[in-house]
């Protein structure tokens, strides 16, 4: 018989869950600038440091551009680092996102997603995260506080194995400021799961190297192609890290999660917490009404889990992709829809797929809305974009 | 010179040792190379003066060209010449020709 360990369960917001995970992996340097809805992560981490529970250097900076720059510098010396931001802060740090990935620094950043200005909105959607999707970062989108905790730990393992920065995103406010029970791992166990690995190059006066040199046309392309290869490697590594984590701590998610997909005819593809929860509830109701409904949640957004998504949607007659961000002027305005459409085109798959834009600036997504999508898919499977929940 | 492949370069565009610029040349992006026709060169020094990279080398010696004797000759250091063409543009006797670089 297995010895039952007492599990520590806390009521935590997703922001606090991220902070607890950062404490568990024992980071060295945290750089911070407050921005809603990210601020409470850093408040919690400051508290840990003040209480002596976490031995880390906290750098108070004057902007998000500086915050990410500071962790780039710290990470270059070989330190384990963390930062977090949202919305305009992520946009302001955008330039440095490319530098972090170009330097191949294993930075981990939490991003509770928030709408972008103008007009100012402090509320949640994924416009900020989606704008960062082509920066060479690995991007996870979590759906529960528990998953935020587990993913931040996984993120360090992944980042330090493939040498890429990793972003852990989740719903602003709907997750960042709402409490859920979170099972915390034993911190010693976490630290043995994510041991500090030696890095090939760090800033060290005893072994001088140059970081951030100029690359003329005869060097630059090869170095960028290295990043392409690194993200492909990260795709395999992310699945492996998730499996290892599952074996050690008993929780795993996969890169793509399915709900009632075994025999589903109609599927809704989502990312993030609110959309996933409501879609699942709607799928249950649709099943009661005789619609074979299922939900697919994309958990790893970059690198895009093409294989898993195609496999998950293999058996469906039609599906809808619910996007909580807008790509203005795009052939279809939803970013996830575009990725799935591209994946399907490349692999010669052709089936009706609807793009539903919803939840922009935290416009409420109701279970009823999701249910309507299932009903519409069954009645009239079609292609195109629908702006749901907007007054037109 | 064969440059390393994407998989052979250090990760993160790091230069892993100091002083590499002494070894690495900086003319890799040149598409046209200047070629000096010594017959037409009148040693006016304008190319040497105008070259923004200082890659025109002034050589001392005794140089018999056609029926004349010069105590100086101009050559180009192709390790650092970026191929901008300013020398060819400035040369009053059209002694410098820009020739396509072969890969």
UniProtKB/TrEMBL annotation, chain A:
The keyword rRNA processing does not apply. Residues 21-241 form the Pyruvate flavodoxin/ferredoxin oxidoreductase pyrimidine binding domain. It comes from the Archaea. GO terms for biological process: response to oxidative stress. Keywords: Oxidoreductase, Pyruvate. Gene3D superfamilies: 3.40.50.920, 3.40.50.970. One of its GO terms (molecular function) is 2-oxobutyrate synthase activity. It is an enzyme of class 1 (oxidoreductase). InterPro entries: PFOR_II (IPR033412), Pyruvate:ferred/Flavod_OxRd (IPR050722), Pyrv_Fd/Flavodoxin_OxRdtase_N (IPR002880), THDP-binding (IPR029061), Transketo_C/PFOR_II (IPR009014). Residues 264-370 form the Pyruvate:ferredoxin oxidoreductase core domain. Its EC number is 1.2.7.11. It catalyses: a 2-oxocarboxylate + 2 oxidized [2Fe-2S]-[ferredoxin] + CoA = an acyl-CoA + 2 reduced [2Fe-2S]-[ferredoxin] + CO2 + H(+). PANTHER family: 2-OXOACID OXIDOREDUCTASE (FERREDOXIN), PYRUVATE-FLAVODOXIN OXIDOREDUCTASE-RELATED. Heterodimer composed of an alpha and a beta subunit. Heterotetramer of one alpha, one beta, one delta and one gamma chain. This is 2-oxoacid oxidoreductase (ferredoxin). It comes from Pyrobaculum neutrophilum (strain DSM 2338 / JCM 9278 / NBRC 100436 / V24Sta) (Thermoproteus neutrophilus).
TrEMBL record, chain B:
The keyword tRNA processing does not apply. Its cofactor is [4Fe-4S] cluster. It comes from Pyrobaculum neutrophilum (strain DSM 2338 / JCM 9278 / NBRC 100436 / V24Sta). Residues 32-61, 72-101 form the 4Fe-4S ferredoxin-type domain. Pfam families: Fer4_21 (PF14697). Transmembrane segments: none annotated. Keywords: 4Fe-4S, Electron transport, Iron, Iron-sulfur, Metal-binding, Pyruvate, Repeat, Transport. GO terms for molecular function: 4 iron, 4 sulfur cluster binding; metal ion binding; oxidoreductase activity, acting on the aldehyde or oxo group of donors, iron-sulfur protein as acceptor. This is Pyruvate ferredoxin/flavodoxin oxidoreductase, delta subunit.
């Amino acid at each position: 018989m297995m010895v039952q360990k007492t599990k520590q369960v806390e009521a935590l917001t997703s922001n606090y869950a991220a902070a607890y995970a950062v404490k568990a992996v024992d980071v060295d340097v945290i750089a911070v600038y407050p921005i809603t809805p990210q601020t409470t992560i850093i408040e919690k981490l400051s508290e840990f440091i003040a209480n002596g529970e976490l031995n880390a250097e906290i750098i108070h900076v004057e902007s998000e551009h500086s915050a990410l720059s500071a962790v780039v510098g710290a990470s270059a010396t070989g330190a384990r680092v963390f930062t977090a931001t949202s919305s305009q802060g992520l946009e302001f740090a955008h330039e440095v996102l490319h530098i972090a990935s170009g330097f191949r620094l294993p930075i981990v950043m939490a991003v509770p997603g928030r709408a972008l200005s103008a007009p100012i909105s402090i509320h949640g959607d994924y416009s900020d995260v989606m704008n960062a999707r082509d920066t060479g970062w690995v991007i996870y989108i979590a759906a529960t506080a528990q998953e935020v905790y587990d993913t931040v730990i996984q993120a360090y393992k992944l980042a330090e194995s493939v040498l890429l920065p990793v972003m852990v995103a989740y719903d602003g406010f709907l997750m960042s400021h709402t409490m859920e029970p979170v099972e915390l791992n034993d911190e010693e166990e976490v630290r043995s799961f994510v041991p500090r690995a030696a890095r090939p190059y760090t800033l060290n006066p005893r072994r001088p190297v140059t970081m951030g040199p100029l690359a003329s046309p005869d060097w630059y392309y090869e170095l960028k192609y290295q990043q392409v290869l690194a993200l492909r490697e990260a795709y395999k590594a992310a699945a492996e890290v998730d499996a290892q984590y599952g074996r050690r701590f008993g929780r795993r998610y996969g890169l793509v999660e399915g709900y009632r997909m075994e025999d589903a005819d109609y599927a809704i593809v989502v990312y993030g917490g609110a959309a996933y929860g409501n879609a699942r509830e709607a799928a249950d109701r649709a099943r009661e009404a005789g619609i074979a409904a299922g939900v697919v949640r994309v958990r790893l957004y970059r690198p895009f889990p093409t294989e898993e998504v195609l496999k998950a949607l293999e058996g469906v007659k039609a599906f809808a992709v619910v996007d909580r961000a807008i790509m203005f002027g795009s052939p279809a305005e939803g970013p996830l829809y575009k990725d799935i459409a591209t994946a399907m085109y490349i692999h010669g798959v052709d089936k009706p797929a609807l793009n539903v834009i919803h939840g922009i600036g935290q416009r409420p997504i109701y279970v009823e809305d999701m249910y309507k999508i299932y009903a519409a898919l069954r009645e009239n499977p079609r292609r195109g974009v629908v702006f749901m929940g907007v007054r037109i | 010179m064969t440059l390393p492949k994407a998989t052979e370069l250090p990760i993160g565009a790091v230069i892993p040792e100091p002083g590499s610029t002494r070894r690495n040349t900086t003319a890799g992006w040149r598409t046209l190379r200047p070629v000096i026709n010594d017959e037409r060169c009148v040693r006016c020094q304008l190319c040497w003066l105008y070259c923004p990279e200082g890659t025109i080398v002034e050589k001392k010696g005794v140089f018999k060209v056609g029926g004349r004797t010069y105590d100086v000759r101009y050559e180009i250091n192709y390790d650092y010449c970026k191929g901008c063409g300013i020398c060819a543009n400035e040369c009053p006797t059209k002694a410098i020709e820009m020739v396509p670089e072969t890969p």
